[in-house]
Amino acid sequence: MHKPFLDKLNLDRIWRLRELSDLRMLHDKAVGKREKEATSRSIVVLTYAHWEGYCSSCASTYIDFLESQGVAYRDLPPNMLLGALSKALDSYRDTADNLISRRKLVNAFQVAHGSVASKFDHSVIRPRSNLNFDRLRFIHEIISADLTPFQEYRLKIDRELVAWRHLVAHGEMFVLNDNAAVSHTQLCEELMFLTKDTFEAALLNS
User: Fold this and answer.
1) What confidence tens digit (pLDDT) does each residue in 125-161 have?
2) Are residues 77 and 63 in the same domain?
3) For the whole model, what pTM was predicted?
4) What is the tally of structural domains in the chain?
5) Which residues contact residue 110 at a Cβ distance below 8 angstroms, ignoring those fewer than 6 apart?
6) Integer distance in angstroms from the first to the last C-alpha of the chain?
7) Are 178 and 78 part of one and the same domain?
8) DSSP bridge partners of 72
9) Which residue range(s) make up the domain with 80?
10) Which of 57, 82, 115 is the last residue of a domain?
11) Which of 6, 122, 126, 180 is the most buried (most CB within 10 A)?
C-alpha cells in the first residue's frame, strides 16, 4: 500500500535532479557576461523553485496517502489535528469569543480526533512560497519528524537559497562562477534527498 506513494516521492525528485543537471550544463557552456547573468539567475530561481516545489509535493503525497488509507487522527502525531481543524479555527477567529463558540470548537476537536484523515488542509504542511528554516521547522513539528539532519544547512537555506531568490526577484544582477553554480544546485539536491527521507519515514510509520 505504501509503494505507489514512495515511488511518487522518488520520481518527483529524479526529474528535478535532471533539470538541475541541465542547468549546470547550460551555465558551463554560457559565454559572455549577459549569458552568464541569465543562466546564473535561472539557476538561483529554479533551484529555489525545486526546493520549495519538492517539499510541497512530498507533503501532498503524504496527505494523499493518509486519506487514501483512512488513517485515524488518533494514530497520527497530535499536531496533525491542525490540518483537520483549520476551518473550525478560522470560524472561531471570526466569531465572538463566548461559551457557545468555544463549545463548538471543542466539539470540532472531539469529532476530528475520532475520525480518519479526510479533507486535510494541505497548507498546514506546505511551504507557502517562503521555505526558510523556520517554515521547515514548523512542518517537521507538525508531522513529528526529526529536523536534526537539516540543522547544518540552516544558514545556507536562509542566506543562500531563500535570500538569493529574493535578490533575483528584485532585479539584482550577479554572476555565479561555475563552482558556485555547482555548489548551489548540489545544495538543493542534498536538501531534496533529506526531504525524501523525512516523508518516506512519515509514510512508513503511518
Assistant:
1) 999 888 999 999 999 999 999 999 999 999 999 999 9
2) no
3) 0.89
4) 2
5) none
6) 11
7) no
8) 116
9) 72-115
10) 115
11) 126
